[in-house]
UniProtKB/TrEMBL annotation:
Family statement drawn from the similarity comment of this UniProt entry: Belongs to the SusD family.
GO cellular component: cell outer membrane
Membrane keyword on record: yes
Source organism phylogeny: Bacteria, Pseudomonadati, Bacteroidota, Cytophagia, Cytophagales
Name this protein carries in UniProt: Putative outer membrane starch-binding protein
Amino acid sequence: MKQFINSFPKSRFAVLAFTATLGLSACDKEVTDLAPQNSITEQSAFSDPARIALAVTGVYNAAQSGYYDPLNGTGLAVRGYPFGAAASSLDDARGEDISDMAGFYGLVFANTINPSSPNVVNMWSNLYSVINQANVTIDGLRKAAASGVITAAVAADYEGEMRFLRALAHHELLIHFSRPYSDGKGSQVGVPYRDVPVNTIAGLELAKAQGRGTVAEDYTKMLADLDYAEANLLANRGSGTTAYYRVTRATKGAAIALKQRLRLHQGEWAEAVKEGDKLIGKTVTSGTTSFTYALAATPRAAFPGGANVTAENIFSIENSSDDNPGVNGALANVFGSSATIPNGGINGRALLAISPILYNAPFFTCADTRRTELMQQDKGLRVAAYVSKKYTDATNSTDFAPIIRYAEVVLNQAEALARLGGANEVQALTYLNSIRNRAVATADRYAPGSLTGNALIQAILNERRIELVAEGFRWDDIHRLSGEKTFSTVPGGGIPAKIDGNGGQLTKYDFYTCGSTTAAPAPAISAVPYSSPLFLWPIPASELVTNPNITPNPGY
């Protein structure tokens, strides 16, 4: 039985996209279906270099715009699942620094997800679709290299891209469906790490026999994928009209940065520093290619809008006017102002707003330029909410989704050094200041030696909340910090309480005014303790029915 490949134009390039494998719940049918008329066989897809290149970009397309099924009989839509927009919006909606304004993220925001909730089902299925398409492509690449269709070096670079995406997708699954590594040093139940293609009956049966394993086992495999990617990926890609490939395709720097992120989640501080040292203040090289990452001079310069390609961008998912996640899913529509352009907005929808919990936080100083450069009053549908200005194109949805930014690498490095303590704290504060000082007033800057120990670590964690808001990082930090508990916002770990804009809590801009005497309302959405089953998303019901070896998360 063959896995067939649909051929259709997407984004700035034509791609070959493999038939989506939605977990295992759809596999039985997919591996036995006849090829549709507009399809070509898998064997043909890897028969020449041009088609192989299209097959590789097809996996990026799956990462950008997998199909969203509302599970109500109305049919499929494109809403940026998993990484085109959904990861950024859902991961922030799980935290307290964002307020839900229209109910589109209501179940996620209110922590009332169930095994049949569309957000859960579609994230699970689309992430495993990316993983399976990467696996099918890796298999085809190896066969093509063995038969001389492409060189071993080209195949290794392509495989590095696929293994990077495979690791990225598995990690996104882990933070939603498994307990953090810090809870028992990875001994908790993980997610199935699928590294063989499900494109035959035999492959399907092999996948069905696979259980969830442990979190530690998943990290071992993710890191192995990223080690391979680092060793084989180019450091830079594209030129001229394709210069954006350096950001929208995996590179050596992206693999290193993702390894650093994983080491932070593991609490392997020295290993995180080791990875960061390869990027910070260094030129990353691979063969004849090289690139030097750097922070933008100002917060706004880090987000010029649209096809965002700066020295601060390490890896982003491309969105374009030809292939965008639609008005309900595009980043500018989710996070951007709903006011018209003449009235200072971008014609977005402001589905998610900045919460007063973050805006009024004492660590977010009043003179911080990120308040004005990257935030604004909505002035449209959400008449009393502040929204993000990081994404600006609500008309054509061309804002790239930032998955890895150099600012994150610097903050990761600062935290890892601060966790190691001692003499490392001097450099940790220097890295923190390199991010913070481009936004805060001189009087608000941290003097050398002014922060040490837990106070320094907390300051770095606070800075992450400001710098990375509306990029999908809040859940990453809530998840990893809840396992160790010391620095969790909720005592003992858990999901913090939230202010609900859709529930009518945001009625005055004064709730946001720094230093205002008008107190913001108390959160209407209660905190969820780490011990609660609601801390994790449930394994989708459709997956449990299809695969008897997948155990459900407790409490569902």
